[in-house]
Amino acid sequence: MNVQFATNSYQLKAPQASTQRTVNFYAEKEPDDVKSPIVVYGVFGLTQLIPVGDGPIRGLHAMNNVLYVVSADELWSVNTLGDAKLLGTGIAGGAFVSMADNGTQVCIVNGMNGFIYNATTMVFQVINDPNFFPANTVPFMDGFFLFDRAGTNQVFFSQLFDGTTFNALDFFSAEVDSDFVLGTVNQQENLLIIGQRTIETWFDSGNNNDPFQRFNGTTIERGAACPLSTIKEDNSVFFLGNDRIFYRLDLPLPKRISTSAIEQQWQNYQTVADCFVFKATFEGHKFLFVTFPSANATWVYDIESNLWHERISFSTNAASLGRWRGNCSEVFNNSTVIGDAFGNQIGIPSSNVYTEYGAQILGMLISPPIQSDRKRVFLWSFELDCQTGVGLPSGQGSNPQVFLETSKDGGITYGPLQKWKSLGKAGEYLTRLRWTRFGQARQWVLRLTVSDPVRRTIIAAHAEIQKADI
After folding, report:
1. What is the DSSP letter of 368?
2. Element spanning 236, H or E
3. Which positions ≥6 away from 241 have C-beta within 8 Å?
4. Three-point CA angle 40, 42, 45, nearest 5°
C-alpha cells in the first residue's frame, strides 16, 4: 500500500488517532502526471550574508535600495554592497518591531516609543512630540504614518510626509465595539483597524480636516489575539484570532485556515500575547511563519499547498532552540533576507544550503497510522522512494543516513530497535531504502529522522502489509 508520508503536522490530543508531524520538511502538491501527487522537501537553509550589530535582529525594512536593520537596540543601514553603518541607538526591548517608510523617513515603533530616521538629513531621533503615544504597529497610507494608541480605541496619525510632527486633533476612534485597538493595516487602500473583538474598515476620504472615515456595515466580528500577529500576503490579510484560530481575511469575510490539531496545541499555550508573524517567498511557496516566543514554537503555513509544518532550530552544538531562529524578513537587492533571533546574522534562504547560519537542520517526519479496522497488520517491509546519491564529497554527510523508528501504540512510544539506511554517497543514484521484518501490530506509526547536511526529498513511501482476520 502507498503511504502518503507526513505531508502535514497534525498531532491530535488523542495520539492513537494521529501523531503525524512534519518538522523541518514541507509538502508540495504536484501535477497529476508526476510520480507522486505530493512530494515532501527539506526546508531551505540560511546562508550567512552579513552580521549586523550584536543581535538579535528585531526588524528589517528596505527603502530606496537600502536595508534598515534593528539589531538589539540599534538601527543600522546596509547598502547593496553589504556595507553596514550604525545610525542610532535606544530602541529598547528584545521583541519584534514594526517598521514603515514614507520614501524619505523610516519609522519604527516598539510598543513604547517611536523613532524616525531621515535618510535626507541622516538624523535618527526619538519622536518626542507630546501628541505621540505608545503604539505597536505603524503602516504608511496616503502620506501619513498611522499608529494604534495602545490601551485605547484610538488611531492617530502624523502630519503629511513627516513622522516627527503630530496634531492633537489628528486621531479617530473605532467605536463599533468597546474593545481596544491592537494594530492597523493598510490593505488595498483600505485601513483595517484591528481590535480585540472586531476589525473595522476605514478609508481616506480626502477631507483635509478629517481624512479618515469608516465604511459602515463592513465591521468583522472577530478580533486579533495580539498586535503583531497580523500580516499581508497574497492580496489578503492573515491573522491569529482572539479565539486562537488562524484566519485568512478576504474582505469582508475571515476564513479559518488552521486545523483542529494545531488549534488544540495553541489552546494549551500559557500565553499568545507575544505571537508575531512574518513571511518569506521561496521557490513559489509563500510561507507564513507564526512564532510563539513564550511557548518556544514556530508553525509555518504554506499558502500554496494549504498545509502546515513545524520549524525548529538547533545551536551549533546540536541543542534544540525550540522555535525557529528566523525572526523577520524583507525583500532587498532582489533577494529575500531573514534576520536571526539568536544572533546578529542576516541570511538568504537557499535550497543548496543545508544548515542555518552554520548550525544543523534536523528533519523529522511521523507518518499517519497504518492500520486496518483494528485488525492485526503484518508489516513485511517499508520502502522510501526518495532522492538518493546526495552525499557530500567528504566529512559529515558523505554517507548520509536516514533513521527509522516504529511505534505500535499510536506514536506514544517507539521501539528500541534502530534501523539505519543510507541516502547514498555522491553519485549513488540507484540506492534503495528498504526496511524489512517489522512483525505485527494493530497499528503502525513510522518516524524518520535525518540530521546530515544534505538534500532531503521524499517522493513516495510504500508499505508491504498483510491483514489478519482478527
Report:
1. P
2. strand 236-240
3. 222, 223, 224, 225, 247, 254
4. 155
Strands 345-347 and 50-51: antiparallel
Three-class DSSP labels, 251-304: CCEEEECCCHHHHHHHHCCCCCCCCEEEEEEECCEEEEEEEECCCCEEEEEECC
Contact 174, 155 (CB under 8 A): yes
Determine the Cα–Cα distance for residues 64 and 333; give it in Å rounded to an integer.
10
User: Any idea what DSSP says for residue 369?
Assistant: P
Q: Is 159 helix (H, G, I), strand (E, B) or coil?
A: strand
Query: What are residue 148's DSSP bridge partners?
Result: 155
Global pTM?
A: 0.95
- Inter-residue contact 467 to 411 (CB < 8 Å): no
Q: Which of 264, 341, 416 is CA-nearest to residue 95?
A: 341
Which tens digits make up the pLDDT trace of 105-116?
A: 999 999 999 999
pLDDT tens track for 229-267: 999 999 999 999 999 999 999 878 899 999 999 999 999
DSSP 129: -
